[in-house]
């Protein structure tokens, strides 16, 4: 009956969607517990590509229950579009999707404010209104899913928020004000479409766990984008780490059995912020092309770099991974040698722990260990023993330095291009 939390160990886009889709086969429920449609989780099944933004990546399997938890910030328009795209591809949604009454709703003023504030702050956000929506949640101004079902409450909240935000838009940002009536009418329309999905998700999931169901918790973004433990301020606005799974759906830490860290075989980052192992020459471009490293949500090119054990050690520590999955090993095929960062040099200091100081992260120099590459293709390999010797050596190095077992190795985009070295169930 395990409950398994899936967490991105780097700066997102590690391949969480693919692993969640694969593991869903043996599960009954899949829960998203934070983030919103800033996420882009790609799953390839039978040569058809699906990009999930809000709906858990388990939805592609028949009869699996998918829950959007209270920790998520939900854009109704984004959700309805996503439902439509999936339904057009023949995916069953109606009885399989649940939305927590207490998840917060992204409003047009969140997107409008972010559009403006990004001009000054330059975090490189996805401009999906994520930060401003979480801001309203914490400030206790937020609109929750359940408010959509109470028109008077919805009207009151939109009015109260617009009083402040329209003032900012007009007077600080010199931007267009938003119309209360239009927002209210649009959201009443969305509410009618969403009504059937809105439930007490905490009760639903706790009952499922008590009934010994297998549950996956699907993290979005990655550990280094965590609002508390990431490279602040170049982070997202939620707790992306394992602890977020408990608060983001309402499940006790006592009920979490396993935590799997998803680790891309190299590192990528999209948006601004420090990235010590970034490769700034043509090799970075080569990896980007080979790995298809373009944002699944915004289409922006992802910055590419070597694997960073310092960042990963931090991720292992604060998430308590019980196992890891290495993805995209095939992207490294054909390289002469591979570098792995095992420490940072900052002035005369050698750092083994991921620094909190953005100034250090921006100016440290990675200390690399070089490992030999492999010439053979690993694409689609399903048996660990069939991997090239040096690919196994690379994986063993990661396992030894992180002291966490590699349970899964992904060898391609497709669902069945995977090695299960040790079952997480
Ligand atoms: P997520 O946000 O963590 O779910 O990851 P994304 O979907 O944003 O980015 C991962 C990309 O890598 C997607 O295009 C996946 O289809 C692809 N992918 C996942 N695993 C593998 C793999 O093992 N090999 C290759 N070549 N591509 C993979
Ligand atoms: P998945 O779930 C990679 C990045 C943005 C930006 C920062 C803040 O697909 O791994 P936000 O819009 O969240 O306020 O932007 O976080 N970011 C991601 N990077 N993968 C993601 O999601 C991301 N979601 C947000 O690029 O740097
Ligand atoms: Mg992604």
Explain what the structure shows.
- By secondary structure, the chain is α/β, with parallel strands linked by helices.
- The protein folds into three domains: 3-99 and 199-259, Adenylosuccinate Synthetase, subunit A, domain 1 (Adenylosuccinate Synthetase, Chain A, domain 1); 105-194, Adenylosuccinate Synthetase, subunit A, domain 2 (Orthogonal Bundle), CATH 1.10.300; 263-420, Adenylosuccinate Synthetase, subunit A, domain 3 (Adenylosuccinate Synthetase, Chain A, domain 3, Alpha-Beta Complex), CATH 3.90.170.
- The chain has twelve helices and 20 strands.
- The strands form five sheets. The chain has a ten-stranded mixed β-sheet with strand order 9-7-5-2-10-1-11-15-19-20, with helices on both faces.
- Strand 19 and strand 20 (418-420) form a beta hairpin.
- It is globular, with a radius of gyration of 21 Å.
- The model has no long low-confidence stretch (mean pLDDT 97).
- The structure holds guanosine-5'-diphosphate, 6-O-phosphoryl inosine monophosphate (IMO) and magnesium ion.
- 6-O-phosphoryl inosine monophosphate (IMO) binds at residues 8, 11-13, 38-41, 123-126, 128, 130-131, 220-222, 225, 236-237, 270-271, 296.
């Amino acid at each position: 009956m395990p409950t398994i939390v899936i967490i991105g160990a780097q700066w997102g886009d590690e391949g969480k969607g693919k692993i969640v889709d694969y593991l869903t086969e043996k599960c009954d429920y899949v829960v998203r517990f934070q983030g919103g449609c800033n996420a882009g989780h790609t799953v390839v099944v039978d040569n058809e590509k699906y990009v999930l933004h809000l709906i858990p990546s388990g939805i592609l399997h028949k009869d699996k229950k998918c829950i959007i938890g209270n920790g998520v910030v939900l854009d109704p328009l984004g959700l309805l579009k996503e439902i439509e795209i999936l339904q057009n591809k023949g995916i069953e949604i109606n009885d399989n999707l649940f939305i927590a009454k207490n998840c917060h709703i992204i409003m047009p003023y969140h997107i409008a404010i972010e559009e403006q504030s990004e001009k000054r702050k330059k975090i490189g956000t996805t401009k999906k209104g994520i930060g401003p929506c979480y801001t309203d949640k914490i400030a206790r101004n937020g609109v929750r899913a359940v408010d959509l079902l109470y028109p008077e409450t919805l009207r009151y909240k939109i009015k109260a928020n617009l009083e402040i935000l329209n003032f900012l838009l007009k007077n600080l940002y010199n931007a267009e004000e938003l119309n209360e009536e239009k927002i209210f009418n649009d959201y009443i329309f969305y509410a009618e479409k969403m009504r059937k999905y809105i439930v007490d998700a905490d009760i639903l999931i706790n009952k499922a766990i008590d009934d010994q169901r297998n549950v996956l918790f699907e993290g979005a973004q990655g550990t280094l984008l965590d609002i508390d433990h990431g490279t602040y301020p170049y982070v997202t606005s939620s707790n992306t780490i394992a602890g977020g799974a408990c608060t983001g759906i309402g499940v006790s830490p006592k009920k979490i059995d396993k935590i799997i860290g998803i680790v891309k075989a190299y590192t990528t980052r999209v948006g601004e912020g420090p990235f010590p192992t970034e490769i700034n020459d043509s090799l970075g471009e080569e990896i980007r092309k080979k790995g298809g490293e373009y944002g699944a949500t915004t289409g922006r090119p992802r910055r590419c770099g070597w694997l960073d054990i310092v960042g990963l050690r931090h991720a292992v520590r604060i998430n308590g991974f019980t196992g890891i999955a290495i993805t995209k090993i095939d992207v490294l095929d054909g390289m002469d040698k591979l570098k792995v960062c095992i420490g940072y040099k900052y002035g005369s200091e050698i750092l083994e722990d991921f620094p909190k100081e953005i100034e250090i992260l921006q100016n440290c120099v990675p200390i690399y260990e070089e490992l030999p590459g492999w010439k053979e293709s690993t694409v689609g390999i399903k048996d660990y023993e069939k991997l090239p010797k040096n690919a196994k050596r690379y994986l063993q190095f990661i396992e030894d330095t992180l002291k966490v077992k590699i349970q899964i190795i992904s060898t391609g985009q497709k669902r069945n291009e995977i090695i299960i070295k040790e079952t997480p169930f």
